[in-house]
Amino acid sequence: xxxxxxxxxxxxxxxxxxxxxxxxxxxxxxxxxxxxxxxxxxxxxxxxxxxxxxxxxxxxxxxxxxxxxxxxxxxxxxxxxxxxxxxxxxxxxxxxxxxxxxxxxxxxxxxxxxxxxxxxxxxxxxxxxxxxxxxxxxxxxxxxxxxxxxxxxxxxxxxxxxxxxxxxxxxxxxxxxxxxxxxxxxxxxxxxxxxxxxxxxxxxxxxxxxxxxxxxxxxxxxxxxxxxxxxxxxxxxxxxxxxxxxxxxxxxxxxx
Amino acid sequence: xxxxxxxxxxxxxxxxxxxxxxxxxxxxxxxxxxxxxxxxxxxxxxxxxxxxxxxxxxxxxxxxxxxxxxxxxxxxxxxxxxxxxxxxxxxxxxxxxxxxxxxxxxxxxxxxxxxxxxxxxxxxxxxxxxxxxxxxxxxxxxxxxxxxxxxxxxxxxxxxxxxxxxxxxxxxxxxxxxxxxxxxxxxxxxxxxxxxxxxxxxxxxxxxxxxxxxxxxxxxxxxxxxxxxxxxxxxxxxxxxxxxxxxx
Lengths: 256, 248
Fold this sequence. Notes:
The complex is a heterodimer of chains A (256) and B (248).
Chain A: H1 2-33, H2 40-50, H3 55-77, H4 86-124, H5 127-133, H6 138-176, H7 181-191, H8 194-220, H9 225-255
Chain B: E1 2-11, E2 14-24, E3 29-33, H1 40-47, E4 55-60, E5 63-64, H2 70-76, E6 80-83, H3 95-106, H4 111-124, H5 140-151, E7 158-162, H6 170-187, E8 190-195, H7 198-204, E9 207-212, E10 215-220, H8 222-227, H9 231-238
Parallel strand pairs in B: 3-8, 3-9, 6-7, 7-8
Antiparallel strand pairs in B: 1-2, 1-4, 4-5, 9-10
């Protein structure tokens, strides 16, 4: 019994340390972001890395998710003779939920792991210390641009995922399952409100913050050589994905 | 002038620096020697504010850098350059971009002038036409020389060297020692070198200090240290396993 409580206490200690460390890093990154000189080139490079280079994976994810949603919802809705609602079902699911969540998860796997690996390697090869010695604050130079890129680019990627998902759903619903094109589009436009898309974008922005912060925190605090770098990448992806899914519930309940 | 006063630092109850006291004179080369794991790197990281001591002071021209905020330290660090043991070159940048990095970050120098300065600094360390190479394509010696070029890019007042010859063959080690001397004479910079390379120490040092069990046990110029009869220093300089220094 004593061992159980000791273990619980240690686990709680680790959680508090992690939460405190991440909150401190976020505060420092936000503070240093506005300390001149502002290096826009660095921010644009990270936006390209998080955004442009994730395009292929989110387009693929969005297209097939929209397509499979159309298939599944058609199968369910035709039992009630409500096939015309396939369009809005796909569009609403993509805009409010699947677009931001799947984009968050895919970008965590692609860009988050790469961020953690890059920062982890820089830590173990003393490149981060070298930045300090050159009077360049590594939080400002490495962390702030990555977090900003995550917050700004995830909504853009989520919109693309939404759009491609709707296209995928349209292709399956109209071209393969024979739903009337006018009905499909008309019903979608009737049901989906700008607020639905806006809520999804807010979520995506929060997920961008979470995944980039988790990656930067674990990468920045890497210890123990090559094995440590691998461990940081794994931890950042697991933490990023879990936090995205948990925060999604709370964000959704706050938005409904 | 840098004064290290009663510096203490422990990691997980292991005392690494224990009332360390040392004065580093301006415009000269001070070499800190000692066995691996004796805290030489820890000491040098305190001097540039990468680590904070448990107690004690480090006075840089009378200002205690151990009490400074990160923003204040950032200003002080502009006076420093540092060559790391593994050179710590940014592996996502070319050699030219590495040397130009501090200049790009802290000056508004036009690109044409920047290229000239990079060429000049690389020439000073005996390298030509390698600006477009990546660090991964360089040998260990070349990496160190590029690291030195980057460390002196901003013409700093103080340059720190963390084991500059570790992992190099004797010929390259001597080459690095010559470069250290040449660049120091050129710029009249304060150099602080930590090493356990005795030939390097004798070749470049104006002053030698030996760190043992967290304390400076002996210090002086090369002649004094060569003739000093302190048994700890003698055992280290002569490279004997037997003596007061215990091998774990």
